[in-house]
């Protein structure tokens, strides 16, 4: 046998070993090279089901890449799909004579593979990317992509993939997981072991969903030859018209009608003359949304509910509108260009609101550059935008060079003196690289939006409350004032005003500034040193917590604590303390509860009831000093009262306090 034929024969034998038909095997497969492999259980499970085989030398080679053709074949096997006898479906330029051409054509036919996503050919024998595998499996399950952000650490790489929505969906469905370092690696090839894990997970989903079905064309006599959209006639075979399914464009190569239904590619059906469940169609770069369908002779008449852009070309590059960020009024948001309905040459509609682009700034981001939309142009080749370069609408990751000035009240801070700068937003710390600031001065952190007054800026461990942020010439001016929080602590990883934290030891309450954290889990109070134990707890904004860990961070110059909400079991739980207060005036309830506007005078100032404890119904303790409750002054709102009597209902833990105006 000639050497070339022998090599080809050996290659085909190896492939056939991988792709044997599904026949459950009585014997458990034995592979010599997977004993310590993370995917061992997946491999054995998948092999036991007859979907894969090993190599003649009894190895499986779990870390060997799997090709697009191999993955496609196994995926169809998992779905129980046998390729149709005819393989005339328009397919890829490089699969005409490929051994898996029937399976590839079947995957195209069902929308699992999309020809337009591979303009240079499928390259069927190249390794399949993890992102591609995610898309194929989600399509196979008939699921939709999820365009919300992922939590993977390489989200910047995921954002570059046309399959990012499928990656999020595959992760949410439990089909695929990230690596131990928190990354997904969308452009990394899938290995055989990984493929087994993914497809075992897929098999767990099958049975609750139906794979993409192929419906038989009812009659060749019912075939349609063209689509008419807004007065323009597009003949099949002359102009490529696409069916838009989620984020995928599927070329339409056949149309037929029967029983009040339109059959597209003998696969997808849509009702005629319906106001619901209508398809999106794409011609050139224009997306026609929710198209109502009717038949006139051999033409399919299409009445779109709205018109959008499917893609945009600029400076020789083509961009998918699903991945082009859209900004309204110089503000960051969650919109993409594909969300915008094009109403006329000067109007778009987004999120139910209409915007005149002549009066409201509307911009897009193409790569790292920003462009203002000054007009919308319509012609026979599609829709184009009149774009003009503009200053960045958002700055993703703030650099010191992006700052023009920082003002604290009327004083300017020297930018060259800044050694550290980060932000506190909703209690969490965000480094400069973790925030997005838009041209309106608003912040985005962890996919949530915040105005400047919700942000604290920390410069060289000094805290400043932002009042405003201005953008000028692509740089920012920050306006702030010294924070009204004098001391901070970090509780469960979040910054907290230390004045809202009270340390509880037995029946005593201490403000955080009255204790000293000597070292990890060692506290000094009143000159005595204590190890953290069950006698300690804390109260934060009225809620009791057990202290699991306490320390002092010298680099940040503040106390750090890990706490869990108390169940009342710890020995320092302030036993017998009132859980509710009722304040009476003239024998009628005047105030129900000791809210923040109810204070008692002790230690030279007005104190909230969270800062005191009761030793009995007639005495209370503040800062280790005991006071008589009778005769004490209590202020409710702006009115001062004197305590004339009290009653402690121990069974219900209610303290009744009787008052008269002072």
Q: What's the helix and strand layout?
A:
Layout (H helix, E strand, L loop, with lengths): L2 H16 L21 H9 L19 H12 L21 H9 L20 H11 L14 H4 L5 H9 L19 H14 L17 E2 L1 E4 L2 E4 L5 E5 L2 E4 L3 E4 L2 E4 L3 E4 L8 E4 L2 E4 L2 E5 L2 E5 L2 E4 L1 E4 L2 E4 L5 E3 L12 E4 L2 E4 L2 E4 L5 E5 L2 E11 L2 E9 L3 E3 L6 E6 L2 E2 L8 E5 L2 E4 L4 E3 L4 E3 L2 E3 L4 E5 L2 E11 L2 E8 L5 E4 L2 E4 L3 E5 L2 E4 L3 E5 L2 E4 L2 E4 L4 E5 L2 E11 L4 E8 L14 E6 L2 E5 L5 E5 L2 E4 L4 E4 L2 E4 L2 E4 L4 E4 L2 E11 L4 E8 L1
Parallel strand pairs: 2-12, 24-33, 34-43, 44-53
Antiparallel strand pairs: 1-6, 2-3, 4-5, 4-9, 6-7, 7-8, 9-10, 10-13, 11-12, 14-15, 16-20, 17-18, 18-19, 20-21, 21-22, 23-28, 24-25, 26-27, 26-31, 28-29, 29-30, 31-32, 32-33, 34-35, 36-37, 36-41, 38-39, 39-40, 41-42, 42-43, 44-45, 46-47, 46-51, 48-49, 49-50, 51-52, 52-53
